[in-house]
Amino acid sequence: MDILFAVLASVIVFALGASIGSFINVIVYRLPAGLSILWPPSRCPHCLNQLKAYDNVPVFGWISLRGRCRYCKSKISVRYPVVEGVTGIIFLLVFLVFQVSILTIGYWAFCSWLLALSLIDLDTMTLPNPLTQSGLVIGILFQMMLGYLPEGSSVALVNHFMMATVGAVLGLWLFDAIGLLGSIAFGKTAMGAGDAKLAAMMGAWLGWKYLLLASFIACALGALIGSGVIMRRSKATSHKTSPQRLGQKMPFGPFLALGSVIALFSGEAILSSYLRLFFPAF
């Protein structure tokens, strides 16, 4: 019975995540275009026919349509079911780690915000203020709720509020400083303002310790992958690619999001291992 319940709960959680992933696809498409994310209902962007309810079933709707619109037969990007499936997996992982708790609900929201922002940044090289600002506010409220709910302590509520605020301010100042120093060093804009706002949102959700860890992981991954991209472009330049392509910008939001997720799931283990390795006396 316990196994059956666990399987059923996992299926429900995955389905919930995939449904949220479907809505994330809507946000990623409509928000940068200045369209309402609520109206009109989902429709084909080519023929504008409204999709049937069964066509909107996450993952399986795309499979049943074989990746094409039912009406005009235009191709539907494979990214739609991939985002739905990935969101479902993220929801399931959060549920398995944090079980039935307010942490699970909060981190479902946090990861959803991170995924939407990452996809928009990949598409448009922007991190929309409505998402970063709403994510920041909800992160602060979430931390206050964590402090208040167990015992109804106003002191704990204030402590959690301060932790979220300090994390948000540190994230904003840290990445503003990095952007300023980078601009001075390279003679051009090194980091967009949206990255600092995303870091502020991360700080509200994670607190200052995990914010710093997530930022370090993001910078390390960005440097590693960025170096690979530069080397690849350098080889291409020697043949037919223009030198200007070497200076193309790379979105940093997805790296910050990935660093946040790693810190969320493994932050305590990483920090504990670091302290044992370099400060064994503590």
Write a brief caption for the model:
The chain is mainly alpha-helical. It has eight helices and no strands.
Largest sheet: none
Instruction: Give the helix/strand class.
Output: mainly alpha
How much of the polypeptide forms β-strand, as a percent range? under 5%
Query: How many runs of DSSP E, i.e. beta strands?
Result: 0
Q: Termini distance? A: 45 Å
Parts with pLDDT < 50 across at least 5 consecutive residues: none
SSE sequence, one letter per element: HHHHHHHH
Globally, the shape reads globular
- The number of helices is 8
pLDDT averaged residue by residue = 89
DSSP helix fraction: over 70%
* Backbone CA Rg: 21 Å
Features of the shown structure:
282 residues; mainly alpha; globular
Explain the overall architecture.
It is a single chain. This protein has 282 residues and is mainly alpha-helical. Helix content is 71%, strand content 0%. It has eight helices and no strands. The protein has helices spanning 2-30, 60-64, 79-98, 102-124, 129-148, 154-186, 193-237, 253-278. It is globular and about 65 Å long. It starts with a helix and ends with a helix. The model has no long low-confidence stretch (mean pLDDT 89).
